[in-house]
Known about the structure:
- By secondary structure, the protein is α/β, with parallel strands linked by helices.
- It has 15 helices and 10 strands.
- Helices cover 48% and strands 16% of the residues.
- The strands form 3 sheets. The protein has a 4-stranded parallel β-sheet, with helices on both faces. A 4-stranded antiparallel β-sheet has the order 4-5-3-6. A two-stranded antiparallel sheet has the order 7-8.
- Helix 14 links the parallel strand 9 and strand 10.
- It is globular.
Amino acid sequence: xxxxxxxxxxxxxxxxxxxxxxxxxxxxxxxxxxxxxxxxxxxxxxxxxxxxxxxxxxxxxxxxxxxxxxxxxxxxxxxxxxxxxxxxxxxxxxxxxxxxxxxxxxxxxxxxxxxxxxxxxxxxxxxxxxxxxxxxxxxxxxxxxxxxxxxxxxxxxxxxxxxxxxxxxxxxxxxxxxxxxxxxxxxxxxxxxxxxxxxxxxxxxxxxxxxxxxxxxxxxxxxxxxxxxxxxxxxxxxxxxxxxxxxxxxxxxxxxxxxxxxxxxxxxxxxxxxxxxxxxxxxxxxxxxxxxxxxxxxxxxxxxxxxxxxxxxxxxxxxxxxxxxxxxx
Length: 329
């Protein structure tokens, strides 16, 4: 039996996040100060005090969520808890993949903050406001949603962006095509098709300019092998090779976040407990809907950290070495 750490994505941000950690732990305060310095911005002030519309900007929300996750990790490190010894795998939802890699030692904290700022800016700039859209399709099987997107593609790019499990699939693409796919999905039995209040069509082919920007940015930072394997978003499989990880992070910008398959992979590979590290409880809720055999816990407040350190996970019985993946073409 083993334990994995998971890291939340955009949408988990809330004004005030991280402040309780900063007040309780000098190690957490140091993380927020380092991120502020890396970005040349007092991002921590926006996190702690708002305004909400500034925090929810993609270029702010992404490094902010990572900072909260890493504040938790630093507190654990200071207390003597080692990811290398106690955690079998890490994974993160979209931007959370960068948090996971930072926690596992692939990126430095400063580089992770700068990469996420570049990522957020590039994703926002890739498509003019109003030309793209995203929608949540509730209660329809993956293949049926995929077919609805394919049939709607006569109106432009349309594809599955996030397979979140529990009957929730998010689609993304050109605004007209997404509207058409929503109608097709409803006609084919979806319980609901809900437009999402997002500023760009994330995880779609329209994000190709952002993918190229991330390819360039990743080529300029030092990457180390993670101390435990990453379960990559676009493959739902473990990877440890930094070169392949970089390629997968580029692919992730335009590709599907396969979260349902990620949780299923954990369940099939001896992972019995998932801890959601940082802000919110979104991933824990998704995991419970995907596979109830996997226990979920959140780790983002001083009380949760104290309870965790009082009764830490046992040493994993499954090996943490990942089978090799073939490089991307």
